[in-house]
Amino acid sequence: MTEIQNTGEELLEELSAEQLSEQARIRREKLAALRERGQDPYRVTQYPRSHLTAQVLGDYAALEGKDVAVSGRILSRRIMGKASFIHLQDGSGRIQAYLRRDDIGDENYQAFKALDIGDIVGVKGTVFTTKSGEISVHASELQLLSKSLLPLPEKFHGLRDPDARYRQRYVDLIMNPEVKQVFQRRSQVLREIRAFLDEESFLEVDTPILHTLETGAAARPFITHHNTLDLDMFLRIETELHLKRLIVGGFDAVYEVGRIFRNEGMDSFHNPEFTTVEFYKAFADYNGIMALVERLYERVALRVCGRSDVVYQGQTIRLAAPWPRLSMAQAVKDACGADYFSWLSDEQARAEAREKGAEIEARFTKGEALAALFEAHVEKTLIQPCFITDYPVDISPLAKRKPENPDLTERFEYFIVGGEFGNGFSELNDPLDQRERFEKQVAQRKALTPRAEVDEDFLTALEYGLPPTGGIGFGVDRLVMLLSDSPSIRDVLLFPTMKPRRES
Description:
CATH topology of the largest domain: BirA Bifunctional Protein, domain 2
Helix content: 25-40%
Oligomer: single chain
Largest sheet: 8 strands, mixed
Radius of gyration: 29 Å
Mean pLDDT: 93
Strand content: 15-25%
């Protein structure tokens, strides 16, 4: 008893009135009083509930007049003398409980009246319907399971400030039931992706998150340090090179659902850590991978949303196959008149691209100029799903050249609602060509970071022989955004990256 009393007193001494709102201080006083009486709610280890609230509501015909035990957080209450109503929320929904002093006893009823919105309780009682027609539990017993020391936001219908929602997702989930639905849908999306690929005989694998080399083209990695090895290491920016090693090793089809980390900017489409799916199939090319992507997206939409036409920010997006295919050069020519095939030099390409309004750097090649024009004039216009194909080789270091035009590659990206959703290609399996491209890429990156290196082990793997292979990587978060009608990537990440608050 002494230990409990001291703990309650210490809670009050540690937090001054200036540090706490009046409501929060009163709640701590209530906790201290409970502990002094030997009724510490945090000592409760379990509660034998018989049903979720949704089960009671959904199976009322069978449960009417039966005893149940439910538990959850108090979201509202109405105290009316000798009788009261509360609404409880658990992980499945909300239900009303009706409490009378004569049923639970005067002492317990007085204890109930001292509870706060946000407290977590267990209720045992009989299922019935109130005069107003609301399915409820007529309580015979109520137990405090956990004390809420901070008040929930005003008006239990919602927490609306976006910054507060992202920073305190736990409060967001309590106050906004529709938020929980987004993340339930995210889980469905991942299940359906895995189910589709498993049915297509792909093997799910895991590859390293910590890398010893800084690789990649434009993406900047996060750097950490391994103390035992005294070695700087890098959080991965892709899963591609390890997955292709597995194709070399004899797996015919592999995929990974993986967390990726890129030390870059943040906006409605980008977060420094995000989730991708990458899959690779031996003896396939980029046409076969595009066909798989179409089928996967249509299948996931049908299973998750019940239809292949989905509404995103007021626009109906048609995900059913087939999707149109258009080369990057043709898309740019159609949009602004610039003709990639007429450029005789990088200088000419840069000059025309500037003239057409693209942002061009002095080092840009013909391929980079084409990509800049595409970004300036085409990308935002691609609302319905569309494959853009045949990217220049100088912006596609891992893609196989087109046999009929070695300046282009068998690469595609697909765009929906004006943004890129995935990137795939016929994989480059010529180790000599790959070495040349890697070395050129590393030479360019050396200007940005001296750590850039050629991945010699990957080149060794290619020298053992990579069969003709098609592969792709696409963002799970963007797909969830599309299927949940969410305008920002932060809406589909439980804990998005946020700038820390600085206390003044």
